Structure formats: C-alpha cells, structure tokens
C-alpha cells in the first residue's frame, strides 16, 4: 500500500503546540512543522519518510529510532560557518528557518547515482576494501585511494570558521544523576532528602524518559517527582545536557545545549560541563533493538518505541496501517497507542509461541490480530514499506501469507544503556532471561577511595519494569537474533544490523568464517558499530550473530569497548575558549605595545611574543635585521630582554646549592660580579644557560633562557624539597617583576651616561661581568655589564611597571646617536658571529657542555654537580662525539640550518653516513659572508677541512671547518 | 540585551610582597609590621586593601596599597635580617582583577577547576584560570583574582568572555 | 582525571592542578657511583601494576612536591605524604596492605 496523508493526526502529541507553525527548509523546499517538533517528526508530518541514504549501498532510509541512537536520519544543518554534518533529526529540535540538507546522495535524495552500489552489493561484502584494492600495486596511489577518499565520510565538513561561542564550566556535587526518567528522578529525590548536593542531567528537552508515553499515569508520577526536586535547594536540574563520558575518580563530562541552531539568542551555543561527582547514578534507560528480518531497512520499518513516540509525543502518524513485530510484550504498547490514535493496526506478529500477558490481552480486546509463533519473511517495497510477507518463526521463511501495511514497528527486546557504567571500568553480565547485558553491581567503577562510585538504576540496570506499580504483568522476552530462525542466505544477506554502515547478518557470518573470532576484530573488519551512532542499535544483535556463527554463548563473545563520547561532540565545545585570542596565554613584556607600534614582526618563544625585528616602511625582514645589526655594531641598539628568566636564590646554603645546580663554581663568585653558568640535568645534558649574579653575601640572581624560567625554577625547587630539604635555601621566580633592556653597541655607555647622573658606569667602576645598582632616568635600576652581542653592553633591569618609561627615555635621548631597537634575529646573528651557543640551537637535549667547547665552564674543583656523574659515562667521554666548530661556506651561499655533513659509505638503510650537522646558520652583515656553527665528529681537530652538505635539491654545498668565533676573537669590544 | 554576569575590573595601585621563611619564625615579625594576624593554612587575613595570605607552608603574600609598600618592605627586611627568610617586592609581577556582581561565582566557575563551594569567605585558593595560574579570594559581592603580569590580557579576555550576558550557569 | 589531595596545603584538586614526577624515593647516585648503580638510578623504574609510590607537584597551588601511594590498576589512592621522608608512613603502608597483604616498601628495588 502507499503512504498517504493525513500525516499529522487530528489530535494528540504531548510535546507539540499546534498554535505555532514553524517554517523550515529541506533540500530547497519550504516545509512547516510545529513548535515542539523534532526534525524527524516535522519531516514525517510532511509525509517525508525517506531521510537519508546509507553509507555504502546508498539505500533509501527512513528514521529507525526516535532518539539518540538514530543511525539513518542524519542531515547537514545550517549554512556557512554554522553548517554541521550528521545532525540527528530525531534529537534536534525544530527552530524557525532551519535549513536541512540531505547527505550521501547525488544529485538528490530521490535520484541518487550512488545507489548503483546497491545493485553491486553482492560484490561489496565485508572486508571488500582489504581484498580488492591490493593489486596491481601502483593502482592504490593513483586510482583506488583517490576514489575511496572522495567517497569516504558521511556528510561534508564545514569550510568556514564557526562563528558561535562555546564555553566550559566546572561543577562539584555529592551525586550526579544521569537520566531524568522515572528511575533517575526517583533516585535524585531520595539522595536529596538525605542532604546530598545533587545534579540531575537529562539529554532531552523534556523530563520523564519513557514513562509519560508508556504509562497512563506516567506523566503524573514524573510531575510529582519534579515538584519534589524543584522544591529542594540542594538539587540542580539540567535539561538538554548529555553526559558524554565518565572518567577516573568520578569525573563526568556533559554537554549542555544552550542555543543550538538558534544563534539569535546571543548566548554561547553549547557548554561543556566538567563535573566532579562524589557518586554517579546511571539512570540512562534502555534502547530498543531491531529484529533481523529481510529488508528490515526499508523506510517505514522502525522501532516499536519510535513509532509510538511519533504518535504520542508529536501527533504524527508514521503510517496509516501498522504491523507490529516483536519478541516481547512491550511492543504491544505501540499497537495500543496506534489503535487509540485512530490508526489501523493490521496485526501483531509475535515470534513467541505464547503471548498472554496483560498487554497482548489488551490488544486482543481491541480486536487486533495477534499472530504468535510468526515472523516476517521479508518486507516488500523499495522507497517505502508496502507489505510484509509472513512465515513461521521456527521455519526457513516459507511464506504463509502477506499483509499490506505502510509501517512496520519492530521490537527485538531492550538493551540497557551501559555506556557510562562501562567507560570507567564497570563490568557487565549477561542476563539470559532478559537477553541483555546489564551492569554487574558487584564490579562497579571504582573511585579514589577504592569503593564503587557508580550505581546503575532502572532500565539502565536491566530493570525494564522500573516504573513499579505503573507496570502491567509482562511475559518474558524471547531472544530472536534471526527472523525466521532458519532463514537461508538469500534472506540473511538482506537483514541489516548496522543501518548506517550497511553491515548485514551475512557480513558478520562471513567474518566469522574467515577467522575473525574476536568481537573487536569483527567490528573493524565489517565496520559493524563504527558509524556515527557507534552501534547503539546494532551492537548486541551483531555480537549475537557472531556468537551463533562461532557456536559459543553470547557472554563468551562479549561486547566491544564502550568509549566516550556517548553521542558525537562538536569539536568547538571541546576547545571552547581555547581559540583565537584566548587559544593559549600569550605572554607580553612591559614594552609589548611599543614594539607593536614600531613595526615589530613577532617571534613566538614559548608563550612569549618577542620582536623578531622592526621593519621600517618598505623594508623586508632580512633588510631590517641587517640594519639592526649594523646599528648595534656601529652605534647603539636596545633589545627587550624582559623575557629572560630571573630566579632569586637566597640563604646560608645558597652557594652550596648553586654549585650543585651549575657546572660552574658559583659559591666563589664575589658580590658585585656576574658569571656565565651552565645547567645540566642528571643525564648530563645541557638544559639551560644564563648569567648568574651575586647580589649579596647570601643572595644570587640566576638568569635563565626565555622559555626556561618556570622549568628551571621547578627544577631547583625539586632538588630543594626532595633531596636536600635540610639545606637552608629559598628561591623565588621574579621574572615578571623586572623589565630588562639590553643597551648594546660602542656608544652604549655614552648614551647611558646621559641618564645615569651620579651612577658611575665607567669601565673602572663597572667593568665587564660586574653589576651595580643606581638610578637610570630617575628609575631605580640594576645594571649588569654582560654581553650576548659581543659589543659593549649593559643590561638594565627596572621594576616592570617602569620598563616602558625607561625604554622610551632611552630612545628619546639617544636619537642623535641613531639608537635602534633590535629584535631576536639580530641578537641571534650577533651571538653566532661571536660563537656563543644558544640553548635549543646548539643543544637538543642530547648535547653535553663538553661537546660545545664549554669545558672552561665546568669546575674541576667541585666533587659533584647535577650531571657530573653522567658526563663520565663511556658514551659521554667518547672522543668521537660531534664537537662544535664554525663553518665557512665556500661559494658564499648560506648552508641551511640542519643540513648534514656526509661521510664516506652508507648505513644499513642505504643512506649516506653523516659526520656532522649545522646547528646555526646566518648571513653575517658584519662580515659580509655566511657564517655557521656545526657539530662535527673530531671537529676541533680538523680545522681547514672541507665538508659536503647535500641538499634535498641534489645540490651539494661545501663548508670549511673554522673557529666558531668569527668576530672580535680577543673580545676587546665587549670589554671596552 | 541582558547584562554581563559580573563587572570585570582591573585593579591598579596595589603592592605585593612575597615572603618566604618558616612561618613560625617569620610570622610574628610579619604580623607585627603589617598589623594583620598571621593566616592559618589556606587562609587570608586582614581586610580591604591590606591583607595577608597563606600561599604555601613557607610562603606568605602581603597585599597593600602601593604607597604603603616601601615602608612595609623596609620594615620587613629589617625585622627579618637575622632570620633565614626571603622578602621580595613582587608588585609589578602581578595583575589583579575584581569580579563583582550577582553571578561572579559563575564567571570563575567557567575558568577554574577549584570547588568554589568549598572556598570560604576567608580562604585563599591558588588554582588556575584556563591555562594560566591564578589565585583568588572572596571580596564583597565577588572575587579578587591575581594572575601574572605577562598574561594579564589573556586573563582579562577570559574573564570578559566568561561574563558574557545571558550565560549564567543556573539551569534555563 | 584523578583527584588528589595535597598533604602540604590540604587542597583537593583535579589532576590538571598538579604535575607528575614519576617514581618516588629514588636514591641519588653521585660521582662516586659505579656504572651499574648509576644506570639503575637514571633509567630503571618499577612501573608496577598495583601499589606504587609516585611524585607529584602541586604546581598550580602551593608549589610543593609530595608523594602519592596509588594503585596503578584501580587508581585507588592510598594516601599522600611529604617528600621529606625516606618511605611511606605506617598508615599508608597499612592501607596498601589491605589491598596487597604482602606489599613491602622497597626503596632500592630499582638498583
């Protein structure tokens, strides 16, 4: 028979408001639904049963379910940056103006070219990809992969940035109840009365779960529970909130939909809750299972519960003439609901031989035929159910009759929603009587105290009749994994298990025959349960088929692993604030705004932003760097060095402590002096360097690299707290208290003397590697005579709040000297010209100071320091370790950073052996030619030798080994 | 348009001194100089702009108007010269925001994993706000939050985002 | 996502407020140590399934390191205590033995 109007029933529908019509767009057509509709019910009310195409065979599909488990009715929703693929029509509330686009079809849902796969389906069995795309080998890259890539994935990804806002929030509660049905609300009331703080989460917009539909008194009971809960101040009730995963120690993630598909509200679209629960009650209900009969995927075949939900909740007729097929009593409710709504119930086909519970009797009392011991041999119809062919359940499918109908409501029994229970280690047991896996209450997930911290209640715990005295007497469910029992291959190859991924009973059987005995392997081979619904409707049926094929009991097969999220989560919700300006903390120095206004090109260093260079109008970065270097070498420049780590170390044992932290002797550093220090880890590897300053008799200031301050401070505290806890030392990370400016160049002193007043900055008063305290530009300052550029240099530290003031003053009074701000790249080039190493360039976590010619910075007098023992291990003392040298390019081209120097011969993989690599490489504007630093085997003993550096292009550059100090070898400039 | 959940106000002009030392040794001197009782573990004492916070078993934070800082700093340094202690002016290393308004707690609950219900009126909680360290305590009608100077803009942006009008955490 | 209680300040907080530091109670081997001793100190770690003592730092809080006795299989936390010690206190040993009656603290098992 054909699918005919009216699709919206004249009355009924507890969730809709017939006074408010809502227009929406579906594949370019304008349709109307009602306030309170889901997308699925709105489409059904327009006679649109076909809502998608399956992934592999492009078969026409209608909704199977009415909730979160829906595998078929998926749409692309929204437009532009708000477009989202794979949105479930059954759980998406209709919003005015919503635009739906059908998926996995071309040119249209009705006329889909890809449906040709359906005719080819005998040639596309499970494991088809693995078997087919192997030969000939070159075909994979050029033919198979491009085609598969084009057809892979359901729906299309949006191409624009999501304009909506998302947020996250933390919550803490004694108890979180997941599920706002009769079991969850009842448990919440009980806990709240005992004084616990309770949070109740419900994924749907309405409370109540199944009870209002399934029981005449259900809504009244729910309303009473809600009234109790709302009166208690210790209870928080949250609708539209899906508990997505349960993690260690009661950590629960939940997604609250605030303004889904309704950006006009101007509030965050979704919120991810991070809830720490003392205890979790899982009251997530159960999901109905389909029955495996031939052509159970034709649009119009749906779960019995879905059929009655559409009628009871939305006043929608899924069809005019209904056949119910079941193995349990519950499905009879659908017959009753449909009949009472004025629809024609043709028959209830019951696979059981006896059906004498209260519900079947009530159905019979309405003169509806109940056919026991019966089954559906196959469903007739292509784009819509037209009839069912009947047979005996015990037989092999021989037709015994046929019934015209336009909807089939099926029920294969119910499976508890055990996802949350299982996410965090809760075990399941097989309940043979009810044919379901349910939580094993003796093996719950454990909390931090070692005791169970999750309880499953109601249908989620297998108590399908949890509505208590609302329930009527029901007979047992009979497991039916194949309908009819003796169905031949021809029928089994049309019995769908996984609707979205097109996995059939015959595919799972094939996998078993081919040796897939593990349910996890079978899942991946057949793709059973791997679609966006993650097997919510297919999992149990599939593993039952596998068990039968393997001739073993169902618990021996077991389930696949339940993993979060319960339903798909938008990536934007997971990211929330971590995007755009707040993607990560961006650390700014006190002079950040000045750099910004003076053309700074930024370089990220850890989370800091440092000026790479300052481009003048019309100048590129390379030109700017060269100009900055010349200015410092010939005049004076300023570098914002505020990012350098600064750690104060104080106490009677501070000197002794620093002797352990550094390879150098720091305890002997005189007050008023500075010393360059190296810090290694216990592996002996160089991890940080910087200038150490002795402030007073018992106080030192340790400078670290820009990225290293927090790490090095933590490293110091680790040793102080955990190893030498009896040493009297306090440390403090004062990095951000100070703004630090390097004033470098031959005219640095001349410039500073204009601002230093009585503070004597002369060579005699403040020689190289000393420091002094005084006022610069009337700002209290510490001045360190240290140099990373190789020029006469003063690093001036002032309280951070006055950093910008000093910087601007320097530029004001130094204008006639051509004062130039310089960035990190100029700094890098100048330090390389001087042969100074850089942590992270010359080191990579496997380099010891000895590799870098820094033996002079390792105290021979000390009996111990962190890393000393490691540096005497045989590999560390191996003379063939690569050592630091300089390189001069023979043809004047820059040898790329990271280039390898090749050696004679090849390694086991046929690659040229290497004998060194470039660690830093620049064009030196000071010298007018390229310079490089490299680590080379026996390097320092090979001065003058030429190494070859093949490039990916095939060219070979040559470099001569030279001393790594290219500029001012005697150091007269920085001492000046 | 609804109002923001709370007013986010950057507080200027506050000074901060970090003290490290065995609290039983430095405590009496600190109390004496500041006129504020030594806080118990996790607590903050004093009132208004002059407060003393417990930061760790051997660290205190002294907050005061920046004008009062030089005298207090000098007095603390003097008073503690004969003891093993570290006294540092950290005023410039920090940023302070006040979150004021009926839904101030909602703003903080979006950023910090701390159990705010367990933060009493005299508690100082060290935690984080999204990806940056933050410490906070209750003030009249809200919270005072201190963070690092370098990430002040980041923290400010987070707080403003979290205070978005209409985004209160109470169920809708 | 674990929840831990810092024994130094008493705060119970989530894992992201802490920083893990691997096995606890390693005995440092200095310059005088033999090769095999030093190798064991540097590289050999217990990594048991069951009771384990590990280092954590309350990095977003009081900044202190502390030790946690934890069941690596069930994530049960037996207790936490200061790093200024050479082994777990008796109450924590007793708590561990409720789950693992034969458990003994072996500081130098790595050597």
Automatic annotation (TrEMBL), chain A:
UniProt keyword Oxidoreductase, yes or no: yes
The family this protein is said to belong to: Belongs to the GcvT family.
Keyword Oxidoreductase: yes
Domain GCVT N-terminal residues, every copy: 591-862
Domain (Aminomethyltransferase C-terminal) ranges: 883-968
Domain SoxA A3 intervals: 493-577
Domain FAD/NAD(P)-binding: 174-420
Protein name (database record): Sarcosine oxidase subunit alpha family protein
UniProtKB/TrEMBL annotation, chain B:
Any Pfam family: SoxG
Record field: transmembrane: none
InterPro entries: SoxG (IPR007375), TrmE/GcvT-like (IPR027266)
Protein name: Sarcosine oxidase subunit gamma
Organism: Paracoccus onchidii
UniProtKB/TrEMBL annotation, chain C:
Pfam families named in the record: SoxD
InterPro entries (alphabetical): SoxD, SoxD_sf
Protein name: Sarcosine oxidase subunit delta
